[in-house]
Amino acid sequence: MSPMQETRPSSHARAQVRRTAIAVAALVAIAAPWIAHARPGAECGGDARGAWMLESLERNLPTLGLDAKQLDAAYQVIDQARQQRRALAPQLRDAHQHLRQLLDADAPDADAVTAQADAIGALETKLHEMELRAVLQVRGMLTADQRSQLDRQRAQHMTARPSDT
Fold first, then answer.
1. Residue 11's pLDDT is what?
2. pLDDT tens, residue order, the chain (165 aa)
3. What is the DSSP letter of 113?
4. Contact yes or no for 53/135 (Cβ under 8 A)
5. Which of these, 117, 122, 59, 48, lies nearest to 85 by C-alpha position?
6. Residue 154: Cβ-neighbour burial (10 angstroms; 0-12, 13-18, 19+)
7. For domain 41-160, which CATH number applies: 1.20.120, 1.10.287, 3.20.20, 1.10.510?
């Protein structure tokens, strides 16, 4: 055999590589929507509990009949709100850590604990306000019919959830 023939893969090997590439491409194509939307709770600013409005809004936008330009504008607003949440998340984590340290003291100072709880509350309120502003901005881009449809979807989602009580 010549050196050229020794390094050239067999037709069986080439076919196997081709099948593997097709299988990987198909898997990526099928999984792409889930991969694109898979986010750990911290993705939305470190406080998954407060990010539900943005998640719900993002999930329902494609069902409202918006054109590509409107969808893009709405997604930009949502992404900007997430960036703002991410920027504030370290402060909130630090504030919670400080509260834990205060509470772990042998004799916690009630005034210091209360002040720290107030600081955490202020940060959480700021995060919530950021999210509300984004939701209001996106709702302002919608027609009255689209807002009504969004409200119906939210109401259906809320009634489908198990009760927290």
1. 75
2. 555 555 666 777 777 766 666 655 554 455 444 333 333 333 333 444 557 888 889 999 999 999 999 999 999 999 999 999 999 999 999 999 999 999 999 999 999 999 999 999 999 999 999 999 999 999 999 999 999 998 888 888 777 666 554
3. H
4. yes
5. 48
6. middle
7. 1.20.120
Structure tokens at 111: 């005034």
Residues 66 and 144: beta-carbon distance below 8 Å: no
What pLDDT is recorded for position 71?
94
Q: Which of 161, 136, 163 is nearest to 150 (CA)?
A: 136
* Virtual torsion, Cα 30, 33, 36, 39, nearest 10 deg: -110
Q: Which two tokens stand for residue 2?
A: 């010549």
> What are the boundaries of each domain within the chain?
1-38, 41-160
Cβ-defined contacts of 120-127 (< 8 Å, 24+): 120/92, 120/95, 120/96, 123/88, 123/91, 123/92, 123/95, 124/47, 124/50, 124/92, 126/88, 127/45, 127/47, 127/50, 127/85, 127/88, 127/92
Residue of 61, 68, 28 lying closest to 134 (CA atoms):
61
Name the residue type at position 119.
Answer: A
Cα 155–chain centre separation: 21
